[in-house]
Request: fold
Amino acid sequence: MSREWVSPRTLHRLGILGMNQRNVDFISRYNSRDRFPLVDDKLRTKLIAEKAKLNVPKLLHVVRTQHQIEEIQHDLIKLNEFVVKPAQGSGGKGILVIIDQNENGFTKSSGDVLDLNDIKRHLSNTLSGLHSLGGKPDVAIIETLVRVSPLFSHISHEGVPDIRLIVFRGYPVMGMLRLATHASDGKANLHQGAVGVGLDIGTGRAIAAVQNNKLVTTHPDTGGDLTNISVPDWPKLLNLAARCYEVTQLGYLGCDIVIDQDKGPLLLELNARPGLSIQIANDEGLLPRLRQVEQLEDYYVTVEDRVDFSMRTFSHYSVDQLELPYQTDGKSQGGTIT
Reply:
C-alpha cells in the first residue's frame, strides 16, 4: 500500500475503510447506542468483564469523591506500583502509571518522580473531568500494574505494549501491537507517537510497523527489531477478544489486550469506535474482511468456530502453516459464504 497521497478511488480499490463509512455502515448499523456506556465507561467495562469471567487487571480502588482521596492515601503509600485511569477517558489521557515507590516518591514509567500530593492532585483533576470525554465529572480507577512479558523487553519502553484487535460480529478481523515510546509518554497510543505493528491474524507474526504513519523497522528508543515479532498465546488472545462480542453485544468493537508475564493475556479496554490506523500498520484495508464476514450465514457458531474461521481466512500464510487450536477435521466451522 503506497504511503503517498492517493485518490479516493484508489483507496476504495485497496479496500481502505474511511471514517464516514465506518460510522455509517458498521458503527451505526451494528452497535446499538444503548450499549455504548458499557465500553465508554472503563469501570463498567471492568465490572462486566469480571462478571463474564474474562481475565482483567485487578481492581484496587474506585475513587468517586474528593473525600475518598483523603481516605485512600494511606493505602496508596503501601503500594509499590499501580495504575490510575479516568473511567471515561479516551486516547490514553489521564492514565498515570506508577512502577515503583521509595523514599524519593512515586516513580512514573517515564522515570519522573512524583510525591503523594502529585498523586492526589491527579486524582482530584480526574474527578473534576479534566481527562474525561466532554469534560464531565468522572470517577478514578486504581488497578494493578501489568508486568510486561519478557518476550517484549527489547521493544518495550516506558510502558506496557498492548494488542488492539478489531472484532466484527464476533470474528477477529485485524490486529495490531502498539508499543509505547518516549514520545508517547509510556502510553500505547499511536496519535501520541507510539509504534503500531500490524499482526497477521492467523499467526500473530509481525507484518509491518509504523510510527507517525511512516514505516519503521526498529523501535525508536530501544533499537529493537520490529520485523521478527511473534505474539505468544495468539489463539488465546483471539478467543478473549471474540468473547467480548457476547459480553457487550456490540457488532463492531476494538479490544485492547495486554500480556502479563505471570497472568498471560488480560483484557484492558473496549472501544465501540476503534480507530482506523490499524490499516496502515497492516498494509491492508479493513473493508474486504468486514464484507466477507457480513456475507456469512447468520446462524449460531461458537467462539472457537469464529476464531478458527478468522485464523484460516485472514492469514497471510497457508492453512498448513497455521497452528489452529480448535479445528481437528480439516474443515472450517466458522460459517459458510452465501
DSSP finds ten helices and 13 strands in the chain. Residues 13 and 256 are 29 Å apart (CA to CA). The radius of gyration is 20 Å.
